[in-house]
Amino acid sequence: MKIGSHLSKITFAALALALISQPAAADVKDGVDAWSRGEYDQAVKQWRDPALNGDPDAQFNMGQAYKTGRGVPTDLNFALEWYKKAAAQGHQKALDSYGHLLHYQGKVAEALPILQSSSDRGDPRARYLLATELFNGTNIAKDWVRAYALMSLASSSGMTPASESLAQMDKYIPLEQRQAATVLAGNLEQRSSRVATASADGFPINTTPPAKTTKQADLPPSSSKESTAVKPAPSAPTNTVSPWRIQLGAFGEDANAKKLWATLKRDRPEIAALQPVYKASGKITKLQVGPFASKSAADTMCTKLKAAGQACLVVPV
């Protein structure tokens, strides 16, 4: 049994979140501004010379343009070359995209060490692809415990293909190995927090055309000292408490979610009083517990659980 065969049915652009780096260089920043307005030709024009002169952010952005076919014709080989140039200068998002695209083009042996590095820093797509390889055991030694741990983390990040693959894994991987994977997932999440850099490369934004709506979109935080992250408009009055939960796992069978909660309720008294919620998401059942009155309270509990080896993710109700 192999998983991941549905990858060919998913466009690479859908798997790879299109991000653009905005560095301090004025012309590259002007390109990012043009891109955000949908002026893709102008953006590429601004980036081309800095990219040719070795600016890693401009090189990464050129890779994104060629990958998405905006401002230039789609050409994954050109995208790969620009990613490679930026990655060689330490641009982490370029390195991530380079590994994803190598794997997509079937250059798996070349991609694997890059995917491992990206996975160690917490990149969900790298974890998904690496987990697929570890489960199938075609290009790398089979390791179902590590495969399940990485796929769980990718699923918890919101990757639908990872959740679907996790449901397939539930049918083949024995319960004791899945339990060991839960512990491993917590350890891997702790390690990725230590490995990941404190700030992102430039200021990433989504490359989808601006939506005609007044609702603000979530953006990753800026690496600059002044945060320019846009926060979503509140959906409730400011005097209303918006509770949070912590997600402890995602399972192909709800019985496994209930078994995990029974074990945690017995072994982790600090969460025994919380209420479990078994949230269905397609074929996946997510174990969430709460509520917490604030995100900081949920973060504090998640930190404690991760320190004990339990995978944990803070989610809004």
Quick overview:
With 317 residues, the chain is an alpha+beta fold.
Please describe what this structure looks like.
The structure is a single chain. By secondary structure, the protein is an alpha+beta fold. It is 52% helix and 10% strand. The chain has 13 helices and six strands. The strands form two sheets. A four-stranded antiparallel sheet has the order 4-5-3-6. Strands 1-2 form a two-stranded antiparallel ribbon. Helix 2 packs antiparallel against helix 3 and helix 5 packs antiparallel against helix 6. The radius of gyration is 21 Å and the shape is globular. About 19% of the residues have low confidence.
Helical fraction: 40-55%
Tally of helical segments? 13
The span between the termini is 36 Å
Rg estimate, integer Å: 21 Å
Please mark out the parts with pLDDT under 50 across 5 or more consecutive residues, or reply none: 5-11, 13-18, 197-242
Order of helices and strands: HEHHHHHHHHHHEEHEEHE
Major sheet description: 4 strands, antiparallel
